[in-house]
Amino acid sequence: MANIFENSFLTLAASTAADDSGLFFQKMDVESSKAVELTGSTADGRPYCIYARRPIHHYLDDDILGSHVTSNWPLITRAWVFQERLLAPRVLHFGKELVWECREASYCECLGASHRLKISHTASLLSSSSDSALHDHWRSLVMEFTWLRLTHENDRLPALSGAAKKFQMQLGSRYLAGLWDDNILEGLLWYAAPERGQEEQRYYTHRPSEWRSPSWSWASVEGPIQYVSNTKAWTSGIEYNAVVIAAECIPASADPTGAILKGHLVMKGNITRALLRHKKSFPDQPSCSYTVTWLAGRRDRVRIGSNFTVNGHDANVDFDLIESGLIKPDSDMEVHCLRLASTQSPLRTFCLDVALLLGA
């Protein structure tokens, strides 16, 4: 499927259609799309005339998929479509207006959009790009990709396999369930992220119903993930405190970038005991992993706080340990932490640890 889109001449996208029975064009609101004539005079008395219309929301520009994107451009919320957009040389989106995407430019009819996904992706895969820049771009793609929706959970790795092959041609590195062998320590610095701004006090990331990858891979959770940081200024100051001894993934087919049967990672580093604690932020809230609070009475500004701590420090967990039954609300349990890396800022030192649940 990836080869079909990559070798296509033009891909037509019914971006406003919710399923395969949808239409290419969305019914226009004629009145709202009409141009309005505004007249007046300048300070020196010269008359002027301005024509204006209501702005069109360009949903392809949104980096966070909220309910407004889902309802208006549902096609781009699909994980398979993300890869198809990256691979296809040219894409023409049908919606309230036509939107053109290719590897060199992006335009819409009103000239108000600036979609950079394909352009940035093409630039990152140039032969002049360094391995460091390629890894930065890969992590950015992964963070965007994991926000998207799949009908079948087991498609998480296959839905990105075509893009992975393009990176592998440039890197010449082994692909390990969404991570790269030559950059695996940086690849491990991810954490599960709650969906922002949707349904207060709800945490969406969870384990898939069937095993699909080892727990050290971002593909082991169903839902959005974030990397600790994806800027060279930050990652260049990281000191790694662990060493990878061996890593291997057994593919489920002839495709090494697709689904896998099993995988393992052997590491060497310092392990310490710690106390993982859950505590509700507010007494009347559900026993979830995160608490969403709205700032200054504005619905578009949110703060997400973790309800878990490790030795008193905020901790991100891969999935909701309360719902899975691994820990009870307002309680604690002993864990073992492997320190992966640390970095310093002018204010404090950040330590990046992986907690291993006892008995898991």
TrEMBL record:
Protein name, entry field: Heterokaryon incompatibility domain-containing protein
Organism per entry: Phialocephala subalpina
